Every structure is written in C-alpha cells, then in structure tokens.
Amino acid sequence: MPKLQMLPAGASTDEILDVLKRDGALILTGVLSRQELDQVLAETMPYIDATPNGADDFVGHKTTRTGALVARSAKCRDLVSHPMIVKAAETFLKPFCERIQLHLTQVIRIRPGQTAQAIHRDRWAWGTHLKNVEPQFNTIWAISDFTKENGATQVCPGSLGWPDDYQPTEDQIGYAEMPAGSVLVYSGGVFHGGGANVSNGDRIGINITYTLGWLRQEENQYLSCPPEIARTLPRELQALIGYSMGGYALGYYSPPGAPGEGPESVPPEYALGHTETAISTLGSADLLESIRDEIRGEKQTA
To answer: PANTHER family, alphabetically (predicted)?
Structure first.
C-alpha cells in the first residue's frame, strides 16, 4: 500500500510543491492546535448536525456535507486564508491565471457504515474539457483523527499522469491517515475518494479548495456569502472568495438603478462598498500588453 509523504507545518512552499507535483498529494502535520480544532467544531457543529445525509452513492448515503463556511464560521475563514496554504495555492496555480479564487468550502462528515466513495479526480467538476492546465489546489483539514478504519481519504500517489478512464487497483490506493490538526494537500488531478467508515465514530474533515480565477466555482460564493456578509470580511478574503476581477475583463457588472444613475460598469468590489474601484480598475494597459507579449512569444516558438 503506497504511503503519502508527510511534511511539518513549517515546510516551505517549494518543499510542498515539489512533493505535490511529483505525487499529487501530501500531508502537512501539526497545522491546527487542539484549541483551534475545538473552535472549528463549536462554530460548525450546529450546521453539521442539521445537515441531512447524502442522496446518492457518490456523495454518500451516510455522509453529510455542509457548506457556506466563510459566512458561517470565523475560524473557517482563518483556514481559508491561511498564509501557508494560500501562498502554496497561488504559486501552484498562478502559471495558469492572473488571480486564484476559493472554489469550495465543505465539512465532510463520514458516518459509521459509509462505504468507500468511487475513486475520482476533483478536476472532473469541469468534465474532462481542460487540457494542459492544472485547475485546482485542494486541501482536507483533519478535524478528527483520520484512520483507515474511520474513512481516511483514499489517495493514489503518482496518479497525475493516469488516463481519466483508468481503474486503480487495490495496491495503488493509499490512505491519508493523519492526526487531527493535519492537512491533506492534493492536486485536482490526483485520483482519490472518501474512505469506508467501519468504525463506530464519525470522521470529520473540512474540504477547502482553490481554483483559477477564470473558472466557474463549484460552490457559488456570491450566494453562499452574499454582499451583506462579504462586506464585513477582510479585504483580502473578499478578493479570495471572488469579489474581485478574475482577469482583464472577467467579473464586472452594471449596478441596478435608473438610467444615468451611477457608473455603468464596475468590478465586484463595488458591491461591497469599495466605490474607489470604478471602471478604470477593471483592467490595465500593462496587463493587456503582457497578454500580447505572451501571444507573440507563443507564435515565435510555434
């Protein structure tokens, strides 16, 4: 059975990405303290307990999935904007975008009796249409201990190059066994799936994932965290969840109002009261010129 490499919480971005690009997944240990774990549970457990089990085999008939964590939990906001994780996500994804964004927040509770989830790639959220682009940087935060018995995530290290229709054999599947407070970091291209829970207790993890700023998010952050809540958040977190331009001309809108009332085209920040970011900040000549330079370079090397 393959093993996932473990790194300490103080690992550098280069160390994290070296393993991620090679294996597709790794575990960071000791990221959250017991006090932080208790805070996460105190803030999210009322929502978790109110969440029904899944309705199909893939999401799990004995699994609950609770979202909208940015709006619901102050401590989960800290997880989403954790400097080490965000820096690694930006470095990993920036070759393919101008800005990264939050893709999904979800507490996944695997309950006793849940069978193993089908092995899959998270990048299949967009089908198999994306080629030669890495669209995701993903994490699962262990809020409880993860063991093979209670449903530790199945992971196939080294599966990044496998064809989409490949069926892993049992000896190619490892398990993200890790103590509470650890974080499984994995690529959108690695084969993985929730494990079977044959224990008598719940396995609780928080799935927080990031994607390219120009892709549709799996969790609609604008509805999960609408402007009246988002405007109370730090500016950096507002931008990360999507209240920012995804590129030169990705994300602007026309505010409602009478004809001639207010500006015509504004970036998402405008909805949060940042009226200084008007149409002039939708893009920049420098960005446009850099795109032209990139296109010229591609033509020269073709």
So the answer is: PHYTANOYL-COA DIOXYGENASE DOMAIN CONTAINING 1, PHYTANOYL-COA DIOXYGENASE DOMAIN-CONTAINING PROTEIN 1
